[in-house]
From TrEMBL:
Keywords annotated in UniProt: Amino-acid biosynthesis, Decarboxylase, Lyase, Lysine biosynthesis, Pyridoxal phosphate
Record-annotated active site: 361 (proton donor)
Pathway: Amino-acid biosynthesis; L-lysine biosynthesis via DAP pathway; L-lysine from DL-2,6-diaminopimelate: step 1/1
Gene name of this polypeptide: lysA
Cofactor: pyridoxal 5'-phosphate
Name listed for the protein in its UniProt record: Diaminopimelate decarboxylase
GO molecular function, one term: diaminopimelate decarboxylase activity
A biological process from GO: lysine biosynthetic process via diaminopimelate
Superkingdom assignment: Bacteria
Length: 439
């Protein structure tokens, strides 16, 4: 059994995280429950930051918070000297509520609204990553009306296809994101912003995909961006101060996954950019990256209570839990794979094979198909590993199921980070029918 971060099996045979018994957590907070190992998040963050420092390269490591956003995780990011990548007004508002330093917030998104961009200006955030020509016009209008400066990056699609799932590959030419680097769109965007009175162009941004286990794609993307920067330097004397190579660093979900360490990704990027800067006679830009999943993914564990059991002879044996696709849509959306353990029998051998079904009224609501597990009985606690990214953040109230609670654990302590929704929460925005029935 592969354990992550501070996970251990204690003397009673229970799974523990951060020195806290998961069975006690389930009793205290109920299930479904997301449990985050703060020590592991800190370790991952420091792995990225310290590598840049050791190699003497100026950098910003921005947490891509779409992976999991809440006030507490933003406060942890601030403690670890991370910057922050937000992709909506809601994420930006949450960051401001957490008192995250606005100057370290970067705002992404392919369809930022006028209201969202005004909030970004009013909050005096550090950078907006510009995605399209419509956004350029909005930024010009807002900045000129407010007579306010804003630092920007141009997001480009470099035409690099990462070795990943089609649905989570965003750097290829056919993408809703960014200006195409190869068809002249990036050059046109550069011409539109380079001399603007209030928009300060720092450089370029790209993101080539997610769940990437090799460095070649990042190196190729860096090469394409640096060559374009070299062209702009020669044509317009543009000095690029920032090169943002995005995120997408993979984590281990199952034994089939073989991720690299943070320092491996970082060191290869630096090596590529330094070589190209020297070759093209450019100043070495500051390197920004945006790890999201790789910071919180394997630090999160979902706890469920086992309920019903169904045996289909010669076909499949099911166990059902008290959550499902409402708190983890990834298996249905991406065919994502996970590993699990019966947390109250973690020391026992995995002698059974179950398909773990959720309680949602959908035949596709299966969290794990054919999972090797210990003998499972109603009332047992099932722990599914590596659910820290895109679990809670993509959760819904489908079937009017309340979203789970979220708990942080560290050094034997536990703290509620997000309260469990109630039925009252679900109906609080509903309004009674007031239209009069026609006679």
């Amino acid at each position: 059994m592969h354990l992550y971060g501070t996970q251990e099996v204690n003397e009673t045979g229970h799974l523990t995280i951060g020195g806290v018994d998961t069975i006690d957590l389930a009793k205290t907070y109920g299930t479904p429950l997301f449990v985050y190992d703060l020590a592991l998040i800190r370790k991952r963050a420091r792995g990225f930051i310290e590598t840049f420092k050791q190699l003497g390269v100026k950098a910003e490591v921005a947490y891509a918070s779409k992976a999991f956003a809440c006030v507490g995780i933003y406060q942890l990011a601030q403690e670890e000297h991370l910057s922050l990548d937000v992709v909506s007004g809601g994420e930006l508002f949450t960051a401001l509520q957490a008192k995250f330093p606005a100057e370290r917030i970067h705002f992404h998104g392919n369809n930022k609204s006028y209201t969202e961009l005004e909030l970004a200006f009013d909050s005096k955030i550090g950078c907006i990553v510009v995605d399209n020509f419509y956004e350029i016009q909005l930024l010009k209008e807002i900045s000129e009306r407010k007579q306010q400066h804003m630092r920007i990056l141009l997001r480009v699609t470099p035409g690099v296809e990462a070795h990943t799932h089609d649905f989570i590959t965003t750097g290829q030419a056919d993408s809703k994101f960014g200006f195409d680097l190869n068809n002249g769109q990036a050059d046109q965007a550069f011409d539109e912003v380079k001399d603007h009175e209030y928009l300060e162009l720092l450089g370029l941004h790209c993101h080539i995909g997610s769940q990437i286990f090799e460095t070649d794609g990042f190196s190729l993307a860096a090469e394409k961006l640096m060559n374009k920067i070299g062209e702009w330097k020669e044509q317009s004397n543009f000095e690029c101060s920032v090169l943002n190579l995005g995120g997408g660093y993979g984590i281990r979900y199952t034994e089939e996954d073989h991720p690299l360490e943070p320092q491996d990704y970082v060191s290869e990027m630096i090596k590529t950019v330094q070589a190209l800067a020297e070759q093209l006679r450019l100043a070495m830009p500051e390197i920004w990256i945006e790890p999201g999943r790789s910071l919180v993914g394997d630090a999160g564990t979902s706890l469920y209570t086992v309920g019903s059991h169904k045996n289909v002879p010669n076909i499949r044996e099911y166990i059902a839990v008290d959550g499902g696709m409402s708190d983890n849509i990834r298996p249905a959306l991406y065919d994502a794979k996970y590993e699990a353990v019966i947390a109250n029998r973690a020391s026992h051998n995995k002698t059974n094979t179950y398909t773990v079904a959720g309680k949602l009224c959908e035949s596709g609501d299966k969290l794990i198909v054919d999972a090797p597990l210990q003998q499972a009985e109603p009332g047992d606690v099932l722990a599914i590993f590596c659910t820290g990214a895109y679990g809670y953040s993509m959760a819904s109230n489908y079937n009017r199921i309340p979203r789970p609670a979220v708990v942080f654990v560290e050094d034997g302590q536990h703290q509620l980070a997000i309260q469990r929704e109630s039925y009252e929460n679900i109906v609080q925005n509903d309004l009674p029918l007031s239209l009069k029935k026609s006679e």
